[in-house]
Amino acid sequence: MSNSSKSSRSLAGIAGLVAIATLVSKVAGLVRQQAIAAAFGVGPAVDAYTYAYVIPGFLLILLGGINGPFHSAIVSALAKRKPEEAAPLVETITTLISLILLPVTLFLMVAADPLIHLVAPGLLQTPEGLEIHAIAVEQLRIMAPLALLAGWIGIGFGTLNAGDRYFLPSISPLFSSLTILASLGALFLQLGSDIINPEYARIGGQFLAWGTLGGAAIQWFAQLVVQWRSGLGTLRLRFQFRQPGVGQVLRVLGPATLSSGMMQINVYTDLFFASFIPQTASALGYAGLLVQTPLGILSNMLLVPLLPVFSRLTEPENWPELKQRIRQGMILTALTMLPLGGLMIALSDAIVRVVYERGAFNPQASQFVSSLLVAYGIGMFVYLGRDVLVRVFYALGDGQTPFRISTISIVLNGVLDYVLIQSFGAPGLVLATVGVNLFSMVTMIILLDRKIQGLRWQGWMIPILSLTVVSAIASAIAWFINDTLEQLWTTPSFLFHLLQLSISGSIGLGIFALLCLPLKLPETEAFIARIRQKLGR
User: Fold this and answer.
1) Are 218 and 176 in contact (CB under 8 A)?
2) DSSP 8-state assignment for residue 537
3) Are 159 and 89 in contact (CB under 8 A)?
4) What whole-number distance in Å separates Cα of residue 113 and Cα of residue 134?
5) pLDDT value at position 6?
6) Could you tell me which residue, 119 or 246, shows the higher pLDDT?
């Protein structure tokens, strides 16, 4: 019992530390996107950057992201090993991955033009599209080394987390955002207010690309310094590919990378269709960041501390506790994502206006992005719920099952994209992704139930359904208050929208919290007790 309590406090402490670091990084990312929106709106520089970033960004998320396959594989392997075994294994894995990713980097530089054509064929149909295509090709060549950096960053994330170092991996994306902001600042000093003019779209695109590359390099170097000082590996080349730990990492890494890659192929599919609708690519990026900011913070709070716990509970005698931890992860996902998704839907217009509407980002752009934000809000719970279950499979050493589900999801996403874009336009692309995530989550629940001899998922359903109803009520009240305030104020301004959003959102969350109390969920009570403990100090 004391061990359980100690573990609970440890998890809570780690989650709090990760939350603070991730919050700082995400806020910086949001400020970065605000600066990009003010400078370029939904114009050619950002549209081109969205297409050019598809492959480097795919690799950075796939290989270098927290909770990505590299992170998961390294944590799973190192969590069960002695500290003195860590450095040789990390150095060997780094050497192997470098030998694979260096040719990938060179290929991206050489084949940039046909790759952009493959990603966005619709750009070649108009003169404006041809300009965007040319800018995107140049940006892709600049950002090609992200392929190599992505692997190094992902290994660093997993290594530091396995060594119980959580703050730097969570805050390191801050360096990337600051570098891009610095590059935009340098461009503004050079061009002044002319930065928003279309004739400077190409140079703006160059600054965006160089800022992105420089930020990733600084992020990796910061991790490397801490990793080096902690005795968790250096830049030494090791070719000990036959040591047992390498095989264990690759058994998880291979299928996990393919599985996560399949999910990223869905992003490519969305952009393929988006290239035929003007300004959709950049609008998807702006709306996606508004969702990813809170989602990333809460995802890291839940998944970073839970993954090592899942990995230590994989033996059959530990499955009862594993099932309890899975329930905890899913209920906490519902407790956080359902109300946030509801508020995204109810307050989408006010959120977009407050965050983005300035400079080159006009009211028409706000209306377009807010329609996409509504669609994203619908799927927040299934997105994170799927991620929780994927990590359970990885902890069990099973990367094949998520891979197979992801393979089916690619076909399903393409079909849904084609069908839903006909009825809903650009928001249909987001709704297709929601449908794919829902399918993946339900399928994983069914298969995991069989794999660990009963997941007891029926015990989640009533709490999750109750939280869904509570979220809907709170969101409806927030929407009503927001709409009433808008009718009372005939000349809206930034301060009005900020006040409107603050009042409506605060009341909505307050109503949700009050309605949750009668449910008496253990996860809610533990969360409240933790807050009271912190305030008491």
Assistant:
1) yes
2) -
3) no
4) 8
5) 39
6) 119
> For the chain, what's the residue count?
537
CA distance readout (Å), 340 to 31, 472, 520: 20, 11, 20
Report which of 301, 339, 348 is spatially closest to residue 469, judged by C-alpha positions. 339
Sequence-ordered list of residues with C-beta below 8 angstroms from that of 193, at least 6 positions apart, any chain: none
- Confirm if 162 and 79 have CB atoms less than 8 A apart: yes
Give Cβ neighbours of residue 192 (< 8 Å, ≥ 6 apart): none
In the block, residue with structure tokens 């995400």: 26
Residues 6+ apart with CB under 8 A from 490: none
Contact 400, 318 (CB under 8 A): no
The CA distance from 450 to 454, in Å, is: 6
pTM of the model: 0.66
Query: How far is residue 212's CA from residue 247's CA, in Å, rounded to a whole number?
Result: 33
Q: What is the 3-state secondary structure (H, E, C) of 463-519?
A: HHHHHHHHHHHHHHHHHHHHHHHHHHCCCCCHHHHHHHHHHHHHHHHHHHHHHHHHH
**Average pLDDT of 183-197?**
81
pLDDT at 9: 41
* The pLDDT of residue 10 is above 60: no
Q: Mean pLDDT throughout 340-344?
A: 92
Contact 24, 297 (CB under 8 A): no
Residues 447, 467: contact at Cβ < 8 Å? no
Q: Three-state SS string across 20-50, please?
A: HHHHHHHHHHHHHHHHHHHHHCCCHHHHHHH
Q: Cβ neighbours of residue 15 under 8 Å, at least 6 residues apart?
A: 301, 302, 304, 305
8 A C-beta contact, residue 305 and residue 286: no
Once rounded to an integer, what is the mean pLDDT over residues 126-142? 88
Distances 518 to 124, 321, 474, 476, 514 between C-alpha atoms, Å: 58, 26, 15, 20, 8
